[in-house]
Amino acid sequence: MPAYKNDAGRWYCAFYYKDWTGKRRKKKKESFATKREALEWERRYIEEQAGAPTMSFEALYGLYKKDCTCHLKKSTMISKFAMIDKHILPRFRQLCITEITPATVRAWQTEVLGKGYSQSYCYSLHRQLSAILNFACRYYGLQSNPVARAGSIGRNEVHQAFWTLDDFHRFAMTLREPAQIMLFYLLFWTGCRIGEVLALTWDDVDTDAIHISKTMSRLRGAPYIRAPKTRESVRTVPLPAFISSMLTDYKRLTVYTGPELFQITSSAAARLLARHAKQAGLERIRIHDLRHSHASMLIQAGVPAIAIAERLGHKNAQTTLRVYAHLYESTKDEVVSVLEKI
């Protein structure tokens, strides 16, 4: 694999390689500062294009990232790749993927567990490594995934706290600003995600419903509007009459502030929630737990799971039943009571 220097003193490589179909192709790449950089780029390129199990983990990760860009949302990719770049790539970078054994993975898992991360974060790291090597098994001839054979670490902890209606009223009594009041009332009484509410404009508001068609997140510190989490998340959420009246009054107060309902970030909203929960003497919960609170209220009121799923934007009723199974446990005695009456 020779490298060459051009008239400008820059290095380039020119070579033939076989792609994953076995076809012979020619490639040239210029403008390297050193011969070593040119040769390293040529080596990695041949590994990626051949797609052989002898490629390095770094080359495989490059292919995996390219594949993800076609299937994942930008905000998801940023957090995903940041996690891999920090905790996985440094440990496996130079290894050939066929050299990664269950023992290699187990040693890495021990390092991760020794760093004091939460159980859910360890579980996420395990899943990221497993996903990359599953990609190699599916598309590049790796015979088996050593991560699966090494076993999992951590656990997928689902944190679900919620407030009752009385709790929310105590919290709401501590709010003073109209925008704060409107924001938290919408979150509690619609069950919408914080990003969905922050993305609302007045064009999305009708007299008796709000239309969810987008969500807002932060991308490198700037607002980022994108499609909702799932196709089912695009939905119309009917509003109680008193929430519609509140929105009408709120619109008159904010007529000059722009088309968006709220000028706040999700992190600022979370700080507000924590501060006013403390003032009200309530258990501290996350912003997303207001969504759980809404679902809990509907379940306790006997609303069918399929109607709750449609309102929350779940894929189907099975998702609702899975996420809120612990709440449905409390209805067992009610079922027996109904049967006895029958």
Plain-language structure description:
The structure is a single chain. The protein is mainly α. The chain folds into three domains: 1-50, no CATH class; 51-157, DNA polymerase, domain 1; 165-335, Intergrase catalytic core (hpI Integrase, Chain A), CATH 1.10.443.10. The chain is built from 17 helices and seven strands. The protein has helices at 35-50, 57-68, 74-87, 89-92, 102-113, 119-139, 146-150, 165-172, 178-190, 194-198, 241-253, 266-279, 288-300, 305-312, 317-323, 325-328, 332-341; strands at 4-5, 11-18, 24-32, 209-212, 215-219, 222-226, 235-238. Helix 14 crosses helix 15. The longest helix is centred in the middle third of the chain and has 21 residues, at 119-139. The radius of gyration is 26 Å and the shape is elongated.
